[in-house]
Structure to design on (224 residues):
């Protein structure tokens, strides 16, 4: 596609429910990132995928959060038993190649998650 | 824990002035440094990348990197009201980390 696509754009859920967020990176981009941005805050790193290497999960805030990526394509971020503090914009970004001398990140429009 | 620190601001400058944004980072081995701009309600977009010590200029923007001091800055010359946004510093070769951002307001 022309850019990074995220769905849904908005998600309202009840506390305790599970949610799944989807990211379609730019075709050919081997690196994919998930970030969380709370209102008025910076980008909080969650997880990084690079090709077929083991993902860097060091930013996931708890075991309620998990993410998968199929090869170099779609990624899903799953939040189990959502809590109100999970309310934020979840941003996905991809780049042509990660690693040394990193490349520009292209961001999706984000998913606004609201946990009631 | 890899840290990227920025003054949260807000920073306010008059139109035509120079805006100076600063960032420090903790990971000494990082080779890749970026400045992103984020308008309210929008996703970040890249302004500058810098990989070597010294200055890098692109139009009204100049990025400065000092790896010994673990410091990277962004200067915006002839600031315009359209430059009003949050500026995010990003550091990292794999797990790219962002600072909290500095909110800049350019007053006409």
């Amino acid at each position: 596609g022309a850019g990074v696509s995220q769905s849904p754009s908005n998600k309202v859920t009840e506390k305790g429910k599970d949610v799944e967020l989807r990211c379609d990176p730019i075709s050919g981009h081997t690196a994919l990132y998930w970030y969380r941005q709370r209102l008025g805050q910076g980008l909080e790193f969650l997880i990084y995928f690079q090709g077929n290497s083991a993902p860097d999960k060091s930013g996931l805030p708890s075991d309620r959060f998990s993410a998968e990526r199929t090869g170099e394509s779609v990624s899903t971020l799953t939040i189990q038993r959502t809590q109100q503090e999970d309310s934020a914009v979840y941003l996905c970004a991809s780049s042509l190649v990660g690693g040394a001398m990193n490349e520009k990140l292209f961001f999706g429009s984000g998913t606004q998650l609201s946990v009631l | 824990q890899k840290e990227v620190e920025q003054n949260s601001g807000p920073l306010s400058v008059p139109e035509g002035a120079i805006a100076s944004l600063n960032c420090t980072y903790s990971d000494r081995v990082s080779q890749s440094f970026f400045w992103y701009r984020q308008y309210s309600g929008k996703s970040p977009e890249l302004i500058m990348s810098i990989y070597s010590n010294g200055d890098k200029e692109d139009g009204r923007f100049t990025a400065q990197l000092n790896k010994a001091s673990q410091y990277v800055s962004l200067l915006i010359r002839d600031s315009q009201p359209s430059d009003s946004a949050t500026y995010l510093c990003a550091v990292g070769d794999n797990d790219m980390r962002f600072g909290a951002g500095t909110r800049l307001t350019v007053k006409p």
Observations:
- Chain A touches chain B at residues 33, 35, 41-45, 48, 50, 56, 58-59, 91, 98-102, 104-105, 107-110 (CB under 8 Å).
